[in-house]
Amino acid sequence: MYKNGVDTIVAASTPPGKAALSLIRLSGPESFELLKRIFKKGGKKSFPLPYSAYYGSLIDPDDGSTVDKVVLTSFVAPNSFTGENTVEISCHGNPVLVSRILAILIKAGARAAEPGEFTRRAFINGKLDLLEVEAVAQLLSAESMSQARLALNQLNGLPSQRVAAFRAQILHHLVQLEASLNFPEDAIEAIDEHRLGHELKIIRRELRIFAESARHGNMVAGGLKIALLGRPNSGKSSLMNYMLGRDRAIVTEVAGTTRDTLEESMQIGSMPVKIIDTAGLRKPGDRIEALGIERTRQAIADSFALIGVFDGSQPATEEDLAILAELKLQQKPFLCVRNKIDLVQRLDPDFFVGLNGVGVSALQRTGLSGLIDELTIILQKSGLENLEKMVLLGAQQQNALDRALAAVDRVCEGIGQIYQDMLAIELEDAVRELGRVNGETVEVNTLDLIFERFCIGK
Ligand SMILES: Nc1nc2c(ncn2[C@@H]2O[C@H](COP(=O)(O)OP(=O)(O)O)[C@@H](O)[C@H]2O)c(=O)[nH]1
Ligand SMILES: [Mg+2]
């Protein structure tokens, strides 16, 4: 049922299955009219009032029978999540009831919502910008309290304000530049390029800091990756199982068993971490092993920190030395683990002298707390626990931010070198790309990509 070209949508917002309650959400101009026809309320309170709850019966209009006893909450536009008239129906948590209620609402004129359609409407009605939409998506998928807090910070709107301010500042310079280019005779002051350059360099510096916060935010949101490196049989897979507290990776005496990288989540303190068990870095014996080694390289590149695993019961081999060199070469925090401390130790006690090292027995499951302590220190030093300063961006937004920065770079480098109308084009580019970060300018296709990640009912 359309009103002003907008239809009224409905969906269950809680997962299917039996539960104490389920929540059905209805949003759009006809929400209230539609419910008035099928809801018999108790009490005298008039319906709908802003933010009000009503107890009563949902009626099947075909035969007048009661479908369920429910509580409705009414939200009058624009004071709702979507900015539209919205009703939330709390019914009994039975999938049979939920589908019957949905069917009645659809028959009464509502349309089944698409994934993310409620959030999309919130965006279109100016209730959320794209940074806040991203925060909602991340809040729904957060697997640790840190990730949830990160998303909640962003929902408070601070990153949105920053991006809007960057965009407004650059737009201001663009307008001035355009004015002096187009109306040189109208006594508009000629642009002082030196000053423009100075001010844009300040914006560039701030934008770079913002981009860095987004990089950190995305690292935390995705789980901080820590790769285990070590020669075959050093005990990487055993150590991974020990860290996870369950048998995830296959452990055998045959060297080269792990041919692919395995990735599993755990938490260190409140930080989400992903441990990656790698296939090793030795010369490939066959094509599958070669692929495994390529994946190991990728895992090292993606990781935030590395753990070198060494067999304490054996003297160091060439390969151990190569692993140690690799750890030092990567400019990432790393930790050396002397494994198999339950056996007679033949690895030179000085092997990792001067480096962060801990001893464990992955087989007998001892030494984990020392290892976790070291990792905690690495996390603390990284500054990645400073969640308040982080920003979450979706892939599209990240790309747009990078392009905005590149355009600002070109302006900074181009001042005094290129024509002012070229500078104006670059500034325009920066304004457009920043608009794609917060959604002030955005194409429908991009919106489709963003909202299809949401579930139905959100
Ligand atoms: N004695 C002893 N053996 C271990 C320890 N950790 C792993 N192993 C054994 O070493 C072999 C190789 O372990 P695995 O985890 O598959 O090593 P990977 O090739 O590095 O993944 C297996 O036989 C394990 O049982 C340990 O702490 N002590
Ligand atoms: Mg293995």
Layout: helices, strands, pairs:
Elements: E1 2-3, E2 6-7, E3 9-12, E4 19-27, H1 31-36, E5 39-41, E6 52-59, E7 66-75, E8 86-93, H2 95-107, E9 111-112, H3 117-124, H4 130-141, H5 145-155, H6 158-182, H7 193-222, E10 224-229, H8 236-244, E11 262-268, E12 271-277, H9 287-302, E13 305-311, H10 318-329, E14 334-339, E15 357-359, H11 368-382, H12 395-414, H13 420-438, H14 444-451
Parallel strand pairs: 3-9, 10-12, 10-13, 13-14, 14-15
Antiparallel strand pairs: 1-2, 3-4, 4-8, 5-6, 6-7, 7-8, 11-12
Bound molecules: guanosine-5'-diphosphate and magnesium ion.
Structural overview:
The chain has about 450 residues and is an alpha/beta fold. It has 2 domains: about 1-125, Gyrase A, domain 2; about 130-440, Rossmann fold, CATH 3.40.50.300. It is built from 14 helices and 15 strands. It has a 7-stranded mixed β-sheet. A 6-stranded mixed β-sheet has the order 11-12-10-13-14-15, sandwiched between helices. It has a two-stranded antiparallel ribbon with strand order 1-2. The protein is flat. The chain starts with a strand and ends in a 7-residue tail after the last helix. Bound molecules: guanosine-5'-diphosphate and magnesium ion (MG). The site of guanosine-5'-diphosphate (GDP) has 20 residues, from helix 8. Guanosine-5'-diphosphate binds next to helix 8.
